[in-house]
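Predicting holo structure, manganese (II) ion bound.
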Amino acid sequence: MTSHPAADAFTKSRALANWVAECARLTQPDRIVWCDGSEDERRRLTDEAVAAGVLIPLDHEKRPGCYLHRSNPNDVARTEEVTFICSPTKAAAGVTNNWMAPDEAYAKLGALLKGSMAGRTLYVIPYVMGPLGSPFAKVGVEITDSVYVVLSMRIMTRMGRAALEMLGDADDFNRGLHCTLDLDPSKRFICHFPQDNTIWSVGSGYGGNALLSKKCFALRIASCLGRDEGWLAEHMLIVGLQSPAGETRYIAAAFPSACGKTNLAMLTPPPALKGWKVFTIGDDIAWLRIGPDGGLWAINPEFGYFGVAPGTSMKSNPNAMLTVERDALFTNVAMTADGDIWWEGMDVPAPAGLIDWRGRPWEAKSGDKAAHPNSRFTAPMGNNPALSPHANDPRGVPISAIVFGGRRATTMPLVLESFDWTHGVFMGATMGSETTAAAAGKVGVVRRDPMAMLPFCGYNVGDYLGHWLEIGKRLTNPPRIFMVNWFRKDAEGNFLWPGYGENLRALKWMLDRIHSGADGDRTPVGTTPQAGDLDLAGLEIAPDQLRQALAVDAAEWRVEVASAGELFDKIGAALPQALREKHRELAAALK
Ligand code: GTP
Ligand code: SPV
Ligand code: MN
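Done. C-alpha cells:
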C-alpha cells in the first residue's frame, strides 16, 4: 500500500517534484508527506513520535511543549571519520577532508538507500536558511525517514510553505537525502557533493549528521557557494553589544564545537559593567557578505539553537535556561522522577530517582554521567530573552570585530589583537583547540582547527584561506581580527579566567581598541592587554592569576609555531604565500 500525493499540489518547481520522485523510486517509502510547517502538522507529528517512543513527553506543567529524545548510544555525536567531501577530484577536497569519488559515493550510498524506506514514511522538508526576503537567504530541501529530524528542522529552520514560496518554479535548492537505516555504524556515511549542491547522509539520526541544514548545507556546501559567489560561510556566533551610551556593535566569533559559542552569544553582563546589554543574533553559523559600505555584514541562517546541555545553568547561561523552558526538544539528557530534565553542571543537585541518558536508573556512585557530555537542547530562537531585534533583519548586521578562539590549557592568552587582516587570517588559520565530546573520538587532544572550520570546510583548506585573503582585499572597511582563550589553566588544572559573563570584559577591550584606541602591549604574536587595560570593575581575581591568563610566553609559542608549520606543510602548495610569509616572520621574531 503506497500513498504518493501529486507533487504539483505543493510545488511549482519541476526540479523539486522530479527530485522527490527520484528519491522515492530509490528508497521505496510507503508514504510521502510534504511538510508545510503548520502548527497542526507539529501536533500530529509529535503525537506520532510519542506513540512510536521516539519522543518522551516531559511534565507539561513544568515544561510546556517539551520532549526528551534518546538516541542510539552508538549515535551521540558527529562522526568526522565517515564524513566525506565528494568533489570531482581529491585535490579539490584538500588534505583536511576525507574524500570519496562522487561516482563511488553515489553507488555505495545508493545501494544502502535502495528500498531503505519500505514500510516507512518519506518526509519532504522544504526550508529557508536566512531571514525571509534576505539577499543572503537560500532554500534547501531535506528528505528524511526520521520524524525526530522533521520536528528538529522545524525548530532549527524557517520550514514549510514559506520555503516553497521562495523557491517558486526554480531549480536552485540544496538537495539533502537522509535515511536512518538500522543505525549500524558500519553503514554510516555523510557525503557532500558540492558540484551538485547535494548531500546524502545514511546510518545516523544525530544532530549534525542528520539535520542537513546545519553543518552539511550551511557550512560544508555553503562554504563552496561562498567561494564561487564571493562571500563567507563560517562556524561563528553573532552577538550585539550595546554600550551604556546606547551604541550597538556586532562581533562574530569562531570557536570549535563545544568551545563556548552559544554561551558568548547569550552572555549576561556582570552587574558591575553597568548599562551594557547583550543581544543574540546567532549561536553557531554566520553567513557574511561585503556590504555597500565596504564592511562585512552577517546573518544567522538558522532559526533555533542546538545547544550543549551540560554546563548550562542559571549561573553560567540564564538566557539559555529561559530559552528551554517551553517548546524545546532535549536529546540524551537525564530525566527526573517528576518528568523534568537534569544534566551535569546545571547547578542544582542531582535529584533522587534520576533516569540517565540511556534510560536506566542513575547511581551517583557509579561515576557515570547522567546526561551524555554531548547531550543537547533544541529550542526556537524566539524563546531567547536576549534575542536581537535584528535577528530577522534581511540586511543582516555590520560586523566590527571577528574573533577566533579555541580551548587551550596553555599558551594562548585571554585576548590578542592581530596587526592587520592578513595577520588576523594567519591567527585564525593556525589556531588550535582541544577536541570535545561534540565529535566522536578522543577528547582533550590539541589539534589545529583553522577558523574552527576543520570539520566543516567543503573544499581545499588552502583555497579557503586564500578566499579569506581575497575577501580582505575587497573590504574597504574591514572588521578588526582578535583571538581569545577562556580555557587557560593553572598548574593545578583550574581555569585562570572566570569565563561566561566575565568574557564581556575581553569584548569591551576589543571595542575600546577599535573605537577609542585603548592601550595594549605589542608582542611578536599580537597586541595583548595588560591588567590595567581591562575593565576589571567588580571582578575579584588575584593579580598573579590574571597575569598568567594574559601572559605570552615565547617558549610555549615556539612549540605553537612549530605545530602550525606542520599544518602548513601538510596543506602544501595550496597554502597562500602571504600566510607562509607570516609564519616565517613569527618564527624569526620568536627566536
Ligand atoms: P557547539 O554547539 O558544539 O558548536 O558548541 P558551542 O561552541 O556553542 O559551545 P557552548 O557555548 O555550548 O559551550 C560548550 C561548553 O563549554 C559548555 O559546557 C559550557 O559550559 C562551556 N563554556 C562555555 N563558555 C565558557 C567559559 O567562558 N569558560 C569555561 N570555563 N567554560 C565555558
Ligand atoms: C557542533 O558540533 O559544532 C554542533 C553540533 O554545533 S552538530 O549539529 O552536531 O554539529
Ligand atoms: Mn557548532
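The domain at 304-383 is CATH 2.170.8.10 (Phosphoenolpyruvate Carboxykinase; domain 2).
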